[in-house]
Predict the 3D structure of the following.
Amino acid sequence: MCGIAGIVDFRSAVVDETLLRAMTDALAHRGPDDEGVICRPGMGLGHRRLSILDLSPAGRQPMSNEDETVWIVFNGEAYNFEQVRPELEAAGHRFRSTSDTEVILHAYEEWGDGCMARFNGMWALAIWDEPRRRLFCARDRFGKKPFHYHLADGRFCFASEIKALLATPLLRRAVNPRTAARFLAFGQLDAGEETFFAGIRRLPAGHYAVFEDGRLTIAPYWQLDASRRDGPTDLQEAARGFRDLFDDAVRLRLISDVPVAATLSGGLDSSSVVVTAAELIREPHRGGQELATFSARFPGFVADEGEYIRAVEDRAAVRSHHRTVDIQGRIEEYENLLRCQDEPVISSAMLANYEVMRLVHEQGSKVVLEGQGADEYLAGYPGMEAGYHADLFRGLRWTSLWSELRAHVRLGNGSSPALLTAALKQAAPEKLRRAYRSRRNALPGYLGPALAEAHEPLEEPPVLSSRFRAELRNRITRHFLPFYLRYGDRNAMAFGIESRLPFLDYRLVEYTIALPDRFKISRATRKWILRQALRERLPAEIAARTDKIGFLTPQAAWMRGPLRERLTALLTASEYRSAAYLDRNQVVAIWNRFLEHDPTLDTKVFRFMIFELWLRLFDLG
């Protein structure tokens, strides 16, 4: 795992190395072990290295082919590189290292722009092809690794993080009003190409880009087909297939020349990763290692998952580490979070994850496995059952619908009328659903004129016949997963840690999407296939959990308590940078209502706070 940066300017005889060094210096946290730059006529590539595979100097980047006509900077891991390498050797390619980076470099030489389809992993990369005078860039299928760029006046600049682009005088800092409006009004974070900075974009997940002759071309090399239904229809067979793929996904992500640890929240997903990794890592050929785990705790808070964490620790026999998260009125902790994230975040949950990564760093670990990604394609979030119920209704499957509604009521997940109403809204014709969304998304009065005028609703995705599968697709590609991957990457890399996500092995995702919907939600229980596949490994209380807590924090209590004085000063300061974007009077009125009697306003207040802090930290007005 590393940080990459580069400048391609065909009008320039030589790229300024000082600019490139400024960019890589801004990424030092991502790669504290080594650094390198290469400047050639019209191009410059920079790299910061976090040494995970091939710790020798042979793994240093930028890396070239044998005759130095093709150069690569790579951030990520291609877990199956050892399977791809023999095919390239048979084709005549010669290797000087044991790294996955060199395999990708030769794969590009052999297969061109289609080479990414050969790999399983996470990556953001750039390859300079000197004979063709072109830059080839790519990002992994789900966008686990970041790739930001700025294109202006025929000059293409790219970097792992926005702060590296801001480290040069090549662009002017300015707020993107469309993204700011969606965030402040509705808490939406754009999963497309736009960022919070005007002129800075991100390469979409599953896409490659080519910059040549001063023109940028972007195209997909992989897209999720959420309509597939060609998986096994027998539950036991499906569970075996899921378990085999999951085990292999974890096994691949244990490949490392440094020890691998794991985070543990006590939820079903992270627990599944921990019990599986702990079993695999004890295999004799690995020397019978002991897995280290890292957890956030909130003693006394209703969402503290200590009892579940302990159950998994006992079952997996791990070496556990805990961090109690309590900011005690330190608004500086949110500033630290924003510095590593570059863009606003939507809740204090990101702070909890940040503190866990700090703990991982303090204990000397460089690689951690995490449970992120399962909720999005296994229907793990509350409310996702509405789309499933809508499909049952539209398919006239009354018996199954009634059975599911009754099961939800028995589990305390709502009343039958409320659940049926939610299903009917989802089942309505698309024109009515769009009208409902339009009314629900009416702009709030506290949005200033500049943002209100710039606001554009997120582009609607193509309609699918299945409401449930459309919800899965949107969670994976648009509204949830892209943001969670962004904050997870930045939090880990802020401390020089590589985060690996077995649930986002693309083979496992494609397999699970193709399974019948009843294997994802059954008897009002989400993630049904995961529970069936791993029930013999998991503690009974984990396999039976039906609540969804995640990284919840006492956010409202913090803001009404230890943060109250600092927040009041922030929102009422004479130098209020948000004045260009928000109606100060209405913001203060919402803050007072929150303090007096309405704790449900905490998400709005949090966005006001984070946006103001972000403007100040990045000197935006």
User: Anything to note?
Assistant: The radius of gyration is 24 Å. Residues 344 and 498 are 22 Å apart (CA to CA).
